[in-house]
Amino acid sequence: MNIVMMGAQGTGKGTVAGILKEELNIPHISTGDIFRKNIKEGTELGQIASKYINDGNLVPDEVTNAMVKSRLNESDCDNGFILDGYPRNIEQAEELDRILEENSKKVEYAINLTLEMEEIMSRITNRRICSNSGCKEIYNLVSKPTKVPGICDKCGSEILQREDDSDEVAIKKRLDTYFSQTAPLIEYYNKKGIVHIVESNKAPKDIVEEIKNFIR
Ligand SMILES: [Zn+2]
Predict the structure, then answer these.
(1) Would residue 127 show up in a list of annotated catalytic residues for this protein?
(2) Which CATH number does the domain housing residue 198 bear?
(3) pLDDT (tens digit, 9 = 90+) per residue, 9-49?
(4) Active-site entry in 136, 154, 162, 212
């Protein structure tokens, strides 16, 4: 089962992919994780990528593509994978098709998690994270509050709002960029007839059930 997961920040994409991975027994591959792993292990691609990142630049497509390719060629991807955060644009989607084609594979499902803009904003601005770097438990003032206000249930540390999550104008800008980038991607996969839209206004495990129903 070769799955591409799409969904804006706040749709719970990472959480859903995490559950789905356990249930389908295939790896959840996020570009963030691939970057971190390559950089940590000091691979050639990792060294190139970290140069861009340290200079405050975006990692070019060809570097990202090469990292994804090497990850997809690992044996745990033989029975499928869940790609999260990749592809980000048509060029990457076409490259992904080429990478898979070399192994007679293809993207079988493009899952698009959707949510009303208002709900996305509410989820992001109400998000709080445990300030203990060894814990980092995520809360939501509305949907997942702490038992004692302001205090992490797990470790007793203070919970904080990430700076990124407090500026509504910046969040809207980030979301606009995301939607303008992904609209052509959705169209690309739509032409292949493999897009499944899932409304993410429900519990992550219900979303996973819905996804499992149509990939069966
Ligand atoms: Zn904590």
Answers:
(1) yes
(2) 3.40.50.300
(3) 889 898 899 999 999 999 999 988 899 999 999 999 999 99
(4) 162
